[in-house]
Amino acid sequence: MVLLAVLAWQMRLQRYTPIVHWLAVVVLSVTGTLYTDVRTGDLLAIVFGVWWARERTLSIRCPTWTPPRRGSPPVLVGQPGRQLPFMA
Question: Over 60: is that where the pLDDT of 87 sits?
């Protein structure tokens, strides 16, 4: 509502008014940030929900491992404390 009111106020003006212009900039920035935070929160909830459904834990320390499917591209995975040949 505030965003719409400020934008309508700015559009009704016949000339540039700095205070109204910058008020619109600030309100639009705050509104955009809040909207992005809400959407990101929804996305994180989906990601963690899928993670929980698949792993039955949200711990990054003990993920369950399933062998790759046939035809999957190889993945380079090193052991802790050991360098892979290309890292030497």
Answer: no
